Amino acid sequence: MVSGKSDFVTIDLKNQTIKVVGNTAIVRHLLYATTNDWGNPGEVRLGIMLVFEKQHGDWVLLARQAYKI
Fold first, then answer.
1. Given strand 24-37, what is the order of strands in its sheet?
2. Position 62 in a domain
3. How far is CA 40 from CA 3, 9, 68, in A?
4. Are 52 and 60 spatial neighbours (Cβ–Cβ below 8 Å)?
5. What are the tens digits of pLDDT across the range 15-52?
6. pLDDT of the residue at 4
7. What backbone phi and psi angles, to 5 degrees, belong to 11?
8. Domain with 16 in it: what CATH number?
9. Which of 31, 62, 63, 66 maximizes the CB count within 10 A of its CB?
């Protein structure tokens, strides 16, 4: 990503859910994207889960997990 060799042409997030319990939130969504890596088109399809904790009034990302779908 930083080198510029990989480029996301489109990104579409779907089916987002947010579950908050106390100071912890679990966010889940599906990520569909088209890419252009070195001029080669491609697709990315991932399930994403994020875990946040509220610290001093701000939501802080504690963990992120992705899996192929």
1. 6-21, 24-37, 40-55, 58-68
2. yes
3. 16, 12, 20
4. yes
5. 999 999 999 999 999 999 999 988 889 999 999 999 99
6. 59
7. -135, 130
8. 3.10.450.50
9. 31
